[in-house]
Amino acid sequence: MSITATELKQNLGKYLLLSAQEDIFITKNGKVIAKLTNPYQDRVSTAQSLFGILPQDADIDTSKGERLAAK
User: Fold this and answer.
1) How far apart are CA 37 and CA 19, in angstroms?
2) What is the pLDDT of residues 14-63, one digit of tens each?
3) Which has the closest alpha carbon to 19: 6, 36, 2, 39?
4) C-alpha distance from residue 34 to each of 5, 8, 10, 21, 53 (Å)
5) Which DSSP letter does residue 28 get?
6) E strands of 1-71, at which residues?
7) What residue ranges do the domains of the chain occupy?
């Protein structure tokens, strides 16, 4: 989504909420000057990419034990 700097100033709260779901590009005089984004988006994308890869019965304690046994 692309908005003007003036629009951002007038509706900051709205765009802060929207930035959790999509990147918002802020323009001034027709040029992009900033990007409002969710700082955790990369983490969410990574976690979602693992769904279906991990076994249903996987748990952290078993995984740690296996990793320590391999050393």
Assistant:
1) 5
2) 999 999 888 899 999 999 999 998 877 676 666 766 676 666 777 778 77
3) 36
4) 9, 11, 16, 17, 36
5) E
6) 2-4, 24-28, 31-36
7) 2-53
Which three-class secondary structure state does DSSP give residue 26?
A: strand
Question: Shortest CA distance to 28 belongs to which of 43, 9, 46, 41?
Answer: 9
What are the pLDDT digits (tens) for 1-13? 999 999 999 999 9
Tokens matching residue 7: 């629009």
Does domain 2-53 fall into CATH 3.40.1620.10? yes
